[in-house]
Amino acid sequence: MSLLVSDLSFSYGSKTALDGVSFSVGRGQFAALLGPNGAGKSTLFSLLTRLFVTQGGAISIAGHDLKAAPLAAMADLGVVFQQTTLDLDLTVRQNLRYFAALHGISGRDADNRIDTALDRLGMAERAGEKARGLNGGHRRRTEIARALLHDPKVLLLDEPTVGLDAPTRAGLTRHIHDLCTETGVTVLWATHLTDEVLDTDQVILLHRGKVLADGQCGNLRNKRPLPDYFAQMTGAPA
Ligand SMILES: Nc1ncnc2c1ncn2[C@@H]1O[C@H](COP(=O)(O)OP(=O)(O)OP(=O)(O)O)[C@@H](O)[C@H]1O
């Protein structure tokens, strides 16, 4: 399994945010972490990215236990945070070069990786543009390209389409699905938007800190529209 989460729990003081969360995602799988506001998605991402320290349970990334082998685990992890983290005064290529350098990648190797990543995201022609001049969708693509530079085996995206219009959202969602198929990268995509999920995707339905359902979307929804299934399971509108 590329991503393994076992019996994970986390509390903010007396407030339980995650309660015995377990799931696994296989290589090249697109998994949607679906949950209404307050379900615990951001807390889970904070634990997966080591912003928070795990209180109970375990996380394994590409076979590396996050606690026992944090550097190896993080080397196989790419992350796209909800808030943009680009330097708007730098060009797309400069933003990516800076990140590559942080990973010890420089020179021709860095440039080759940057070209490949930008090409994959349909951003090759924008390499010389300042990030400030890009629209929201292209900024997101730049961040995804950046997250792929070090060839991670697992890519986490925390509500990556927030603030984007419908066609841009659809394009980005399609791109990431293609990426799974073409490169074998494993994706965990947090969202509360059911139209970003395909029937062949794995759905991990999180609600009030617990996994309510985990399976292939088509099987879970069983011919019902996904928003109906989501609403029935969580009591929240999709
Ligand atoms: N710093 C904090 N202190 C106390 N409770 C918190 C804190 N951060 C989150 N919570 C609570 O923990 C639970 C899970 O929150 P979390 O932000 O992980 O959910 P989420 O699914 O990411 O929601 P959203 O989509 O609104 O970000 C919620 O009940 C939330 O109110």
UniProtKB/TrEMBL annotation:
<dbReference type="InterPro" id="IPR003439">
    <property type="entry name" value="ABC_transporter-like_ATP-bd"/>
</dbReference>
<comment type="similarity">
    <text>Belongs to the ABC transporter superfamily.</text>
</comment>
<feature type="domain" description="ABC transporter">
    <location>
        <begin position="3"/>
        <end position="233"/>
    </location>
</feature>
<dbReference type="InterPro" id="IPR003593">
    <property type="entry name" value="AAA+_ATPase"/>
</dbReference>
<dbReference type="InterPro" id="IPR050763">
    <property type="entry name" value="ABC_transporter_ATP-binding"/>
</dbReference>
<protein>
    <submittedName>
        <fullName>ATP-binding cassette domain-containing protein</fullName>
    </submittedName>
</protein>
<dbReference type="GO" id="GO:0016887">
    <property type="term" value="F:ATP hydrolysis activity"/>
</dbReference>
<keyword id="KW-0813">Transport</keyword>
<keyword id="KW-0547">Nucleotide-binding</keyword>
<dbReference type="Pfam" id="PF00005">
    <property type="entry name" value="ABC_tran"/>
</dbReference>
<dbReference type="InterPro" id="IPR022467">
    <property type="entry name" value="ABC_transprt_ATP-bd_su_PQQ"/>
</dbReference>
<dbReference type="GO" id="GO:0005524">
    <property type="term" value="F:ATP binding"/>
</dbReference>
<dbReference type="InterPro" id="IPR027417">
    <property type="entry name" value="P-loop_NTPase"/>
</dbReference>
<keyword id="KW-0536">Nodulation</keyword>
<keyword id="KW-0067">ATP-binding</keyword>
